[in-house]
């Protein structure tokens, strides 16, 4: 799929940077049923009418904004509940460039028993050695903090 930093991380979950308006038809045609957006509505490349565009293609849209510099255990707990509720759906999870989503998916999948190698996106492999302290702390969350 021709999305920014797209990665099919499981058979039912794809991750990506922010789609363009014309991408939603392709996303729907690929069988995705739900689009989850972790970026803010005022982020670069944000699409004000994203929810409408997604709905027009017959998919559900869920916006769970996470401020880039402030990911929290509460955000992650909410994300885990959301992904658990969507486990029988094909889901595209995106943010601005797929960094924030890659971190959230890595934590979620490894908590579910997926190996670190299988839970890592190509973007995460590049970003991990360069993460700032905020994201390192997020990556260090353990299940007792949820």
Features:
146 residues; alpha/beta; Protein-Tyrosine Phosphatase, Chain A; 5-stranded mixed beta sheet; 39% helix; 14% strand; globular
Describe, in plain words, how this protein is organized in 3D.
The chain has about 150 residues and is an alpha/beta fold. It has one domain: Protein-Tyrosine Phosphatase, Chain A, CATH 3.90.190. It is about 40% helix and about 15% strand. It has 7 helices and 5 strands; from the N terminus they run ββαβαβαβαααα. Strands 1-2-5-3-4 form a 5-stranded mixed β-sheet, with helices on both faces.
Return the CATH topology: Protein-Tyrosine Phosphatase, Chain A
Distance between the termini: 34 Å
Query: How many discrete domains?
Result: 1
Uncertain runs are none
The total of beta strands comes to 5
Biggest beta sheet attributes: 5 strands, mixed
Radius of gyration: 14 Å
The CATH H-level superfamily is: Protein tyrosine phosphatase superfamily
Range of helix content: 25-40%
Please give the CATH class. Answer: Alpha Beta
Name the strands of the widest sheet in spatial order. Answer: 1-2-5-3-4
Number of helices: 7
How much of the residues is beta strand, in percent?
Answer: 5-15%
Order of SSEs: EEHEHEHEHHHH
Shape type? globular
* Helix-strand makeup class: alpha/beta
CATH 2nd-level architecture: Alpha-Beta Complex
Indicate the mean pLDDT: 95
Condensed summary:
The protein is α/β, with parallel strands linked by helices and 146 residues long. It has helices at 23-29, 50-56, 73-85, 99-111, 116-119, 122-127, 133-139; strands spanning 7-10, 13-16, 34-37, 60-63, 91-94. The model has no long low-confidence stretch (mean pLDDT 95).
């Amino acid at each position: 799929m021709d999305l920014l930093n797209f990665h099919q991380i499981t058979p039912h979950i794809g991750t990506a940077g922010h789609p363009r308006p014309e991408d939603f038809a392709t996303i729907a045609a690929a069988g995705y049923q739900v689009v989850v957006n972790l970026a803010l509505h005022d982020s670069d490349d944000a699409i004000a009418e994203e929810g409408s565009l997604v709905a027009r293609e017959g998919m559900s849209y869920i916006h769970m904004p996470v401020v880039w510099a402030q990911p929290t255990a509460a955000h992650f707990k909410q994300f885990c509940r959301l992904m658990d509720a969507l486990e029988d759906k094909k889901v595209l999870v995106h943010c601005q460039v797929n960094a924030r989503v890659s971190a959230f998916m890595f934590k979620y999948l490894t908590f579910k028993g997926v190996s670190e190698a299988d839970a890592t996106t190509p973007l995460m492999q590049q970003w991990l050695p360069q993460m700032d302290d905020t994201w390192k702390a997020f990556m260090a969350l353990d299940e007792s903090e949820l």
